[in-house]
Each structure stands twice: as structure tokens, then as C-alpha cells.
Amino acid sequence: METNQQRKALQDAMVFLGAIASGTEQAIGESANSISYLAGVNLGKKLSSGVPQTRDIQEALKATREVLEKNDYLWLFEPFKTHDQDSIVQENDDGTQVMLVFRDCMIRQSLFRFGHTQKGSLCNMMYGFFAGALQNIMGRESSLEIVHAGENACYKKLIVRREQ
User: Fold this and answer.
1) CATH 3.30.1380.20 assigned to 2-161
2) pTM, to two decimals
3) What band does 78 get if pLDDT is binned at 50, 70 and 90?
4) Which string of DSSP letters, residue by residue, matches 26-40?
């Protein structure tokens, strides 16, 4: 029962953030996405400081998940392999790529509760969080891009850039 109460308290706080995001997006437009992204990068770096480094993307994702859980963030994600992929991890010209499914995302739930659209500044905060955390954990730049934003799950492409 306590978990449900904690989730309710978190969602109430996130609805408040949804309202702030909506107002900020209306007031300053596209700049809200950049500001939220940078805030996410800072948060990702801060929360993942001290996490052992790895070059293995699956280990890095496991460490990122542990950082989120340790800090009570409900961004549950898992790697996803389509039927035509040989493995979860794909290498291409951009770097290492993994598709991720976010089934239980506190941001998506909060946006729906507030009545605000997805793909805005709060989603950009998540992208920033992953970029900051993976920069600490893997020592490389990354990007997280929406492939599909849905009511029940979001499907995203994570690309960890090649070392320069």
C-alpha cells in the first residue's frame, strides 16, 4: 500500500511539473526543450557520479537503471530487439545503437494526468538524463530519440556515439 501512496505523491508532484513545463513552453517556446535537456544532463551526471565506468552498453544500461531505482525515479525501461535484428546491440556509422521500450514512465503518466502532449520539455529532460549518465558511465556522448510515443509505452532509439 505504501508504494501506491508514494506513487500518488510522486504523480502529484509530476502533475505540478507538467503545469510548469506547459507554462514554460508557452512562455519561451522551443528554448524550453534545451533548458530541460541541460537540466537532465546535469541531473544524470550528478546521480551517476561514482558509478564504475564500462564500455559495454548493456552494462551501462543496467547501471543507469540502478541509478534511477536508487533515486526512486520510475523510468522503467528495457532493451528491445525486433524480429529482424540479430542482437539487441547494433553497430552503425553513428555508433552503438539499442532500441528501448519505456512501459512505465512517470513523465508520460504525468503528462497524461495533466493533459499535456508528449515530446516536449519534460521528455527532453529524460534525454538529457541519459546523455549525462552515459557520459559518466561510458565516457561517450549519446542521444535518445523518440521512435514512437504512445499511451501505453514509448519506443526510443539510444545511440552512443563512437569515440572521437
Assistant:
1) yes
2) 0.82
3) very high
4) HHHTTHHHHHHHHHH
